[in-house]
Design brief:
Blueprint: H1 4-12, H2 20-32, H3 35-51, E1 53-54, E2 61-62, E3 76-83, H4 86-95, E4 100-104, H5 122-131, E5 136-139, H6 145-158, E6 164-167, H7 183-191
Helix pairs in contact: 1-2
């Protein structure tokens, strides 16, 4: 018979990036927390599951019909940054450099997993691009096989719209070391080099 602590550890291991040791640490933190902290954690989980939904425009997470970004009239609505997930959107926003709007796909195409354009928010992106005054679509998808396939599909779908389709650059990160870079990263870094 599995103990309650083992059940909790098993549940916590389902979180991305949480292995056995981290799950055990989290379980003991929960075990040692006071009831008020536990109640707050449970309440916040319930609120997130109950109140968050997808923005009707960009498909980011929101409590209302539009997210804060889509509702911000100061944003440049002629530029759409396409990302795979709300987490990727938050990463781009954290940089503070992009002042346009977003489109969250909620995944990438993966034929082997049965994920085609209809399973993610690709048709909605094409609709937005055709209906709104969009001048540029910036693809900020992860440099995976699926991300590349999705980027190519988007490029093909939007080619006739006259919209500029660009891709964020990939390469060696600031503070990174060449000796640890994989061959694809180095290739991209050389392809996307800039003149000084």
């Amino acid at each position: 018979m599995i103990s309650p602590l083992e059940k909790l550890v098993k549940s916590l291991k389902k979180f991305p990036g949480v292995g056995e040791k981290t799950a055990i640490r989290y379980a003991f933190f929960i075990l040692n927390a006071n009831q008020q902290e536990i109640d707050e954690l449970v309440r916040n989980i319930e609120i997130v599951k109950r109140d968050l939904k997808l923005c009707s425009e960009c498909f980011h997470l929101t409590e209302g019909d539009l997210c804060d970004i889509c509702g911000d009239t100061r944003r440049d609505r002629s530029r759409i940054c396409v990302v795979e997930s709300p987490l990727d959107l938050l990463s781009v926003e954290k940089s503070g450099d992009f002042r346009g709007i977003y489109h969250v796909l909620h995944g990438v195409m993966s034929p082997l997993d049965g994920i085609g354009p209809d399973e993610i928010k690709l048709n909605e992106l094409v609709r937005r691009t055709n209906q709104e005054n969009v001048k540029e679509v910036i693809l900020a998808l992860n440099p995976t096989v699926e991300g590349e396939a999705t980027a190519s599909f988007i490029r093909d779908q939007l080619r006739k719209t006259g919209v500029i389709i660009s891709r964020i650059a990939y390469g060696i990160p600031v503070g990174g070391s060449l000796e640890y870079a994989d061959p694809l990263t180095l290739t991209r870094a050389f392809e996307q080099r800039t003149t000084l």
